[in-house]
């Protein structure tokens, strides 16, 4: 299946999302967005009961989370800015 976005001029920020723990936008989407001056974000998602446990573990200021460390190392290596963080839930 092929997806296209024809009206980049109306987009300020594109968030690439899937129901995987860490989602990094494919180069084709990132390149197309950057050619049109649009910033692109990937997602880190924790869902349901196991996700709640993982989220609390990553946010615990007294614990150094291996997953958190890996995510931030990848962000640094890719030169990304984790400027947008959102926690949504009950």
Q: How do you describe this structure in short?
A:
By secondary structure, the protein is an alpha+beta fold. The protein has three helices and four strands, in the order ββαββαα.
Folded structure, characterized:
This protein is α+β, with helices and mostly antiparallel strands. The protein has two domains: 10-45, no CATH class; 46-82, no CATH class. Helix content is 38%, strand content 11%. The chain has three helices and four strands. It has helices at residues 27-35, 48-59, 66-78, and strands spanning 13-15, 22-23, 39-41, 43-44. Strands 1-3 form a two-stranded parallel ribbon. Strands 2-4 form a two-stranded antiparallel ribbon. The longest helix has 13 residues, at 66-78. The model is unreliable at 83-90 (pLDDT under 50).
What characteristics describe this protein?
90 residues; 2 domains; 11% strand; alpha+beta; single chain; elongated; disordered C terminus; two-stranded parallel sheet; two-stranded antiparallel sheet
Strand proportion, as a percent range, falls in 5-15%
Overall mean pLDDT stands at 77
What's the number of structural domains?
2
The helix tally amounts to 3
- SSE series: EEHEEHH
Tally of DSSP β-strands: 4
């Amino acid at each position: 299946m092929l997806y296209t976005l024809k009206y980049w001029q109306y987009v300020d920020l594109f968030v690439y999302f899937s129901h995987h723990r860490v989602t990094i936008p494919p180069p084709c989407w990132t390149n197309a967005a950057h050619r049109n001056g649009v910033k692109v974000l990937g997602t880190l998602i924790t869902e349901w009961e196991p996700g709640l446990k993982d989220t609390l573990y990553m946010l615990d200021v007294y614990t150094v989370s291996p997953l958190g460390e890996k995510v931030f190392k990848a962000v640094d290596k890719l030169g990304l800015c984790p400027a947008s963080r959102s926690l949504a839930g009950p």
